[in-house]
Design goal:
The chain is α/β, with parallel strands linked by helices. It has eleven helices and 19 strands. Strands 1, 11, 14, 15, 16, 17, 18 and 19 form an eight-stranded mixed beta sheet that branches. The chain has an eight-stranded parallel barrel with strand order 2-3-4-5-6-8-9-10, surrounded by five helices. Helix 1 crosses helix 3. The longest helix has 23 residues. The two termini are about 15 Å apart.
Length: about 375
């Protein structure tokens, strides 16, 4: 471990991910399945390590975006059900079948192509049908004047030879956003999805797994859990209001102070001359930068945690380093560790400084930053 802590590193708590899944189990209704979303390298945590943890902890499903992500998990020994959210070209359906994966079907053309490929292979493809109820991104469109057409398309998929329809789902647009408009929009999406389900059920098509709850809905609309919830951010404690679930931080980014120097008043610091000292300052050079995934947009707008408290960042971030003001922290020096984000330095503060969301920070931490896994 010490070899990995020379410059900058991420500490990933698999124990906290396991804890968060357990808390989620207590939050959702008894019997509701829990899918752990591990797309985008498990939000930067490391999909293989997180997937093994979730499998051992009793998650029911894993969710990934593409075939490559799913195949990597299978090749690393993950045996539990895995669903692909995104589109897979029909010529690769043989691989989906070989790896025993579940494929999303989001349009009539893909459904027909998938069925043809599966039948040509003498097998049946397990699928979940994606319905668009207002995100306007991907899926059979059920909004506005398209409802009747959507009903027909979903039922056509259900009766298609070569496809086993195990599930049907939709995705919320603003379930994690405050405000009456967003609340009503989420309720309307849910009502539309329920209307569709009732209609196809009345027509004699029963689909075993119905799901709509992403993280926002899990936290704020537990009554919408249905047969399965899709736990993404909530597993990694990324939401503002998730304290109510008793979640724990899973990702901490740390770096070393490689040098300390005294600078005079009226001295510019770093590229672009965006910060000028007003008095003599004791400046620490931290070994992390935009080459490690920190955006330059947060320059001069964040702070890091040290053993003696917070230190404000000074000047523009460089590719490999950034500077902090240690004037008020005389006992913090070369070789000491700072926490860029984690349990002390809030990821939410950092995301706000960059005008983005915490997930983007986790996913942006580059591969040259070693991950240290803590059970």
């Amino acid at each position: 471990m010490k070899e990995l802590q020379k410059r900058v590193w991420a500490e990933i708590s698999l124990g906290h991910i396991e804890h968060n899944l357990a808390q989620l189990r207590r939050w959702v209704p008894e019997g509701c399945r829990c899918m752990g979303v591990v797309k985008a390298d498990a939000y930067g945590h490391g999909s293989t390590q997180v997937a093994h943890t979730l499998e051992q902890a009793g998650a029911d499903y894993l969710g990934v975006y593409c075939l490559d992500e799913a195949a990597a998990l299978r090749l690393d020994g993950i045996t539990m059900p895995i669903m692909i959210f995104g589109h897979t070209p029909a010529q690769y359906i043989g691989d989906v079948l070989d790896f025993g994966l579940t494929q999303t079907v989001a349009d009539a053309g893909s459904a027909a192509a998938y069925a043809q490929a599966a039948k040509a292979d003498g097998r049946t493809l397990r699928v979940h049908i994606k319905v668009d109820t207002g995100l306007t991104r991907y899926g059979f469109c059920a909004t506005g004047t398209h409802f009747e057409e959507c009903v027909q398309q979903v039922e056509d998929v259900c009766r298609t030879d070569g496809l086993e329809v195990e599930g049907i789902y939709t995705h919320f647009a603003v379930s994690d956003e405050e405000g009456e408009f967003n609340h009503q929009y989420t309720l309307d999406q849910y009502a539309l999805f329920q209307r569709l389900l009732e209609r196809i059920e009345a027509d004699g098509f029963h689909i075993p797994i119905r799901h709509c709850s992403n993280t926002g809905a899990i936290v704020y609309y537990p009554e919408m859990a249905m047969d399965m919830v899709r736990a993404g951010n909530v597993l990694y404690d990324l939401g503002d209001e998730e304290d109510r679930l008793g979640l724990q931080t899973t990702f901490t980014l740390k770096a070393k102070i490689s040098a300390v120097r005294m600078v005079d008043a009226d001295t510019y610091i770093s590229y672009g001359l965006t910060y000028k000292t007003r008095q003599p300052e004791r400046i620490g050079i931290v070994d992390a930068g935009y080459g490690d995934g920190l955006p330059r947009s947060i320059s001069n707008h964040f702070r890091v945690w040290t053993k003696d408290g917070f230190a404000e960042q000074r000047g523009r971030l460089c590719m490999d380093t950034f500077m902090v003001d240690l004037t008020a922290l005389p006992d913090v020096g070369e070789g000491d560790t700072v926490e860029i984000f984690g349990p002390h330095a809030s990821i939410h503060e950092l995301a706000a400084a960059a005008k983005t969301i915490p997930e983007e920070f986790y996913c942006s931490v580059t591969k040259r930053v070693p991950r240290i896994y803590i059970k």
